[in-house]
Amino acid sequence: MPIKKPLRLDARVPLALAAAAALAQPAFAQTDDTTPFYAGGSLGVSHVSNVYREPNAPNSDTVTSAGLLAGIDTRLGRQHLTLDGSLQNNRYSTNRDLNYRSHSLRAALNWQTVGNLSGVLSAKSDESLADFNIGGVDPTVIARKKNIESNDEYRALVRLGVATRYTLEGSWTHRRRDFTAAEYDRFVYRQDTGSFGVYATPAGNVRLGLAARRTEGSNPRYPVIELTPIPRLVILPNDYTREDIDFTTNWRVGGSSTVNTRISRSKTKNSLDQLRDFSGTTGSVGWTWTPSSKLQFNAQYSRDTGQESVVRSTDLDRVYTSWQLGSTYAVTGKVSLSARATNNSARRNSDSGAAVSDALEDTRSYNVGLRWAYSRSFSVSCQYDRISRDHSQSIYAYSANSYGCTGQLLVY
Fold it and tell me: Residues 3-42: pLDDT tens digits?
């Protein structure tokens, strides 16, 4: 039975690598109609080479993570309910002031009426130790301060037309992020997004979509430099709006390949004059290839603003380009391999017309994993992670790696 891996809040561009707790987030189990409930535990140990993400002072530690898992996956007539949760206790061997408890919760209800009306109600909640030196905050100020990050997302989607050529879809999504360290206030945000679109299936293997999307968000405590009457740092709210017209495609190429695209005309307006407004084209393209039942490849590329793609980037108003490559291979019925590489980058030139200096931000991460499922109830997985960042300001540049294993035992 396969294992569900937890999704991060910003699933579109999974760039942040929490190597210090690489094995702290457990895999979620998958049930079926005969055994709709499960409960269990996990135990993992990982070694981290650069806990605090410091550029020239590598520091290593060993992290032990013990957790409890539980979940539900059942059908209630036409409705399908899933619920997965975990609680983790994460202990550092040397940096014991970083010890923390984390949790992860996923819930979804896929509902359907007798007619052509259906939809999804979902919620996500995560709390864990935030990455150190994520950019935008001087690491010498908050170099080794414990900082807990919490992310929540609530979503509702309504669809009219199930097995028809044309479908109408409307959705609403609320996201929020918080940090316990005041120095990370610039990355705190609230965001509501509404979307309405029409989708057509002119052929059995092609789906086209045209949707209007509007986002209203706020960075309630954003630090900016005021130049008058004298230069000083002040904390002000930044309210922003974004409007998009999305054209999407989903094309099944043959029986083993699928291509997804999104091209959007986007316009963002910020209330703070220090943050530049944006008007231009954003989008993404993804490709999944499954040449056999044992092997799968996937690739994704996107171009979007920091507010949408990497909210924790140094500059929210810059445009970032990101790509990801991944693959999985089932060596046997019990052993599987996985590999992933991601890159996120932004460059800004002082001759672009803005009164700013040249800037570079480039983050790369790599992951290799091995999983052995002895049975449906017991599995062991090991992985190696590496992350590195180049930056025009040397205090934000670093490299780190981690490796470790975790075991999981479930009762159905």
Answer: 333 333 333 333 333 333 333 344 455 555 567 999 999 9
Stated as kind and residue range, the H or E segment containing 223 is: strand 206-226
Q: Is 5 helix (H, G, I), strand (E, B) or coil?
A: coil
Q: Name the phi and psi angles at 351, rounded to 5.
A: -90, 15
Query: What is the full DSSP assignment across 100-153?
Result: EEEEEEEEEEEEE-SSSEEEEEEEEEEEEEPPS--SSS-TTTSTT---EEEEEE
Helix (H) or strand (E) holding 306: helix 306-309
Q: Return the domain boundaries, the chain.
A: 19-411
Which residues are within 8 A (CB) of 58 and not within 5 positions of it... i.e. 6 or more apart?
A: 49, 50
Distance from chain centroid for Cα 40: 25
For 90, the 3-state DSSP assignment is strand
Measure the CA–CA gap between 217 and 192, rounded to whole angstroms. Answer: 6
**130-172 residue pLDDT tens:** 988 887 777 777 778 899 999 999 999 999 987 778 999 999 9
- As beta bridge partners, residue 129 has 148
**Cβ neighbours of residue 51 closer than 8 Å, sequence gap 6 or more:** 20, 59, 60, 61, 92, 95, 98, 132, 400
Mention the CATH class of domain 19-411: mainly beta
How many Cα atoms occupy the beta-carbon half-sphere of 319 within 13 Å?
15
Assigned token pair, 328 = 């999985």
pTM for the predicted model, two decimal places: 0.85
Query: What distance in Å separates the CA atoms of residue 2 and residue 106, rounded to the nearest whole number?
Result: 17
Pair 9, 175: CB distance under 8 Å: yes
**Beta pairing partners, 238:** 219
